[in-house]
Amino acid sequence: xxxxxxxxxxxxxxxxxxxxxxxxxxxxxxxxxxxxxxxxxxxxxxxxxxxxxxxxxxxxxxxxxxxxxxxxxxxxxxxxxxxxxxxxxxxxxxxxxxxxxxxxxxxxxxxxxxxxxxxxxxxxxxxxxxxxxxxxxxxxxxxxxxxxxxxxxxxxxxxxxxxxxxxxxxxxxxxxxxxxxxxxxxxxxxxxxxxxxxxxxxxxxxxxxxxxxxxxxxxxxxxxxxxxxxxxxxxxxxxxxxxxxxxxxxxxxxxxxxxxxxxxxxxxxxxxxxxxxxxxxxxxxxxxxxxxxxxxxxxxxxxxxxxxxxxxxxxxxxxxxxxxxxxxxxxxxxxxxxxxxxxxxxxxxxxxxxxxxxxxxxxxxxxxxxxxxxxxxxxxxxxxxxxxxxxxxxxxxxxxxx
Length: 402
Ligand code: FES
Ligand SMILES: [Fe+2]
Description:
Naphthalene 1,2-dioxygenase Alpha Subunit, Chain A, domain 1, binds FE2/S2 (inorganic) cluster
């Protein structure tokens, strides 16, 4: 080939491309995986309090199949492995009784803590029944949610309290939502949880995805390109976004992630002040997650009204064509892949927040492997209430630092 011809050959085609794949140590959640073990050091919401009833319910959490129910007499919520320790029938088909659940196959009864209370076919209803234990996880109920701890029993921390949900003013309501992402999507989100969580530290997508593409999904202010600063906190990463509204006012919007999977995203519809809501991005497994959002507001419909629209239409009513023309969070994040190939990303200056989350996640993995507590673990009742700094604040130009 002549030299002149060679110069015209451009490279960078897709030929021979070898994808590097996901950052599995960060994305995977199952038992024994690096970040799965980090997640197992904290309490996680498994459902609303109303999800635990006398009818056993299948739950998937951190890659584990579980059965949730509530005993009839004391109303104690319980979370057990489904596979009966006797010979493996699923407790999903069990009957909930006063003090536990009775397996459908040979009638063994298990308490919420897995003790075997009765073996009806055995002599004396099971003279050695204390020798077996149905695998179980501790639960607590708070803020309308049921929380589970799935980690090493000896390292169980306190279930934190959160500033906005303590001392609720008169006339305000505590509420829970567990469906979809703000910009739409099915209730059970069908891709890897990390794509959603790291998006919380990606404020630059807002003016593009949520304004230029979806047609001003939030407010005119949110469509402005922000100036952003990121910082590590003791329990996560914080971003401060400044948007110059006019000559005298700047909007200072603060969002946070807290470990291991918490999002502090104030209303994108810009209610002023410290945020009134917190979300937990809870992985069912590597390709499914659910977001539990707790909020406090005078308006009992606050959370349902937050749901953004695409060209004025709710996400669920969009046609294929409209999904393509007006993509939102679901389309952007799901299309990164069921588990995104993070190792093929080209992070740029505006991805600093994403890079900081990934670095801090890797640090927590190392901490857990070294036998230390990861960030944000609370063991001291004096400091069990977590303060939130996220919010929307209107400040005069002179004090904004711009
Ligand atoms: S398999 Fe459950 S009691 Fe036999
Ligand atoms: Fe978004």
